[in-house]
Hints:
Blueprint: E1 3-9, H1 17-30, E2 35-41, H2 53-56, E3 60-61, E4 67-68, H3 71-79, E5 88-90, H4 91-103, H5 114-127, E6 135-140, H6 150-163, E7 168-175, E8 178-179, E9 184-185, H7 188-200, E10 206-211, H8 217-227, E11 234-238, H9 246-252, H10 255-262, H11 274-285, E12 289-296, H12 306-319, E13 322-329, H13 338-342, E14 347-350, H14 359-371, E15 376-379, H15 381-393, E16 400-402, E17 410-415, E18 418-421, E19 424-427, E20 438-446, H16 451-456, E21 460-467, E22 469-471, H17 476-481, E23 484-489, E24 496-501, E25 507-510, H18 525-538
Parallel strand pairs: 1-6, 1-7, 2-5, 2-6, 7-10, 10-11, 12-13, 12-14, 14-15, 15-25, 16-17
Antiparallel strand pairs: 3-4, 8-9, 17-22, 18-19, 20-21, 20-23, 23-24, 24-25
Helix pairs in contact: 1-3, 1-9, 5-6, 12-18, 14-15
Amino acid sequence: MARYIFVTGGVVSSLGKGLSSASLAYLLKSQGFKVRVRKMDPYLNVDPGTMSPFQHGEVFVTDDGAETDLDLGHYERFTNISAKQSDNITTGKIYSDIIKKERKGNYFGKTVQVIPHVTDRIKEFIKSDIDKEDFVICEVGGTVGDIESLPFLEAIRQFSNDIGKNKTLFIHLTLVPFLKSSDEIKTKPTQHSVKELRSIGIQPDIIICRSQQSIPIEQRKKISLFCNVPIENVIETVDVRTIYEAPISFYKEKLDKQVLKYFKIKPKKKVNLLPWKKITNTVLKTKKQVNIAIIGKYVNLKDAYKSLDEALIHGGIKNNVKVNLIRLESDNLRSNEINNKLKKVSGILIPGGFGKRGTEGKISAIKYARKNKIPFLGICFGMQMAIIEFARNVLKIKKAGSSELDKECFPVIGLVHEWNKGGKLIKGTIKDLGGTMRLGLYEAKLKHNSLIKTIYKSNSIKERHRHRYEVNNNLKDQFEKKGLIFSGMSPDNKLPEIIELKNHPWFIGVQFHPEFKSRPLSPHPLFSSFIKAANIYQWKI
Length: 541
């Protein structure tokens, strides 16, 4: 029988609801329970696939091809449970589904309204695709008081009444600010946030208080009194030095214990925190360091490459080195400045992306990595830029480019016209940007005697994709004659998936996104190998 835990937020956004949900999920899973974590986003976009990173941050991709919120990345990294399409829903998706049903006459002429039709659709999402889970943790995006969030809050209120309050628990995450001028911790924002939640009809059972410093007992008593929550259920979360301290912090505060106590359930086994202690010790205390340059359009946005940042850290954990991320805006990277800006880095990474802005800076950086034998990793768009650089400077195809960026170029990169998925032929298009890409898990066959096969230790792999353009396979022979090997191909041998450079210590481009499958407790082999190569190079400079 599933128990449902709803996580809401108040006062301000970006308090860490996703991290809190992921940490709680790990603690419950570690005690022998089957856990599922879901996210409800209040925006009107059907999914984040067409949203700018400036607006939304990273688009996370699941095995089954869903473009989702980055919080699902947190859920996967902490629980090691692969998310599904059914684990993320938006207001846009809900309204889209309802309008389609209305157009088909499925409501039999009834007036379609927020209550009950929208709230019923949300409740359907909450309880859908459940497979003997003990706990389903549902994070509600936005903050209490947002107009956009009201249908979700009403839906979870109804849901609790529908299945019984003994099967549902409400956790409210709120800010407890510290005012330096008065040297005081203020509880009023939390009180007002909870008051707003209670006015909707939801009484929080547990309050998680985000603060810069430990909350004195008197302030916790005040929160307990005014918010009608037992003091043991006022859980503080003080800013941690690394996100991988979060499970340890919540365990110390007995969050999991209070959740199980509420449901009158005893743990099946003891929580194992040793892996997290080992990780935090490596991240915070190791003296060995390596500098990795990430060159892209959104490097100054904290969440734009969230999974990538974490995957590189995971690679550092595997090699017992601290990874320093040197973020360089490709738009501002001039060819005459390359040597000065990259001379102290031991690895260069070009991430995924779309659009023409900053491409020449990326190409110049790739040329520098190729000629100076610096470990290089190109991901998705980064691999395509590596193909263009090689075509221009080695094959001497001066107009080599991508048809995405220049219709008059010699297209070494072009639109994926068709591909196989689940035995069906899928056709690509540029007319409808939403949901027309090659998305989700696809297989690649690895070439014998290749570096990539040595890294993966397998003849074939399955990785997550998110792209609309692909390397022109007709030029394969020309590239390979000059030393750029197509070391990974789709099973039908039509789509290049991986490239690597001969006579270079470590130069790899991949069409997929390996960062989505990296975990702190199980680092992705590609990032582990990349950081290892960068660490070796470090001793040469």
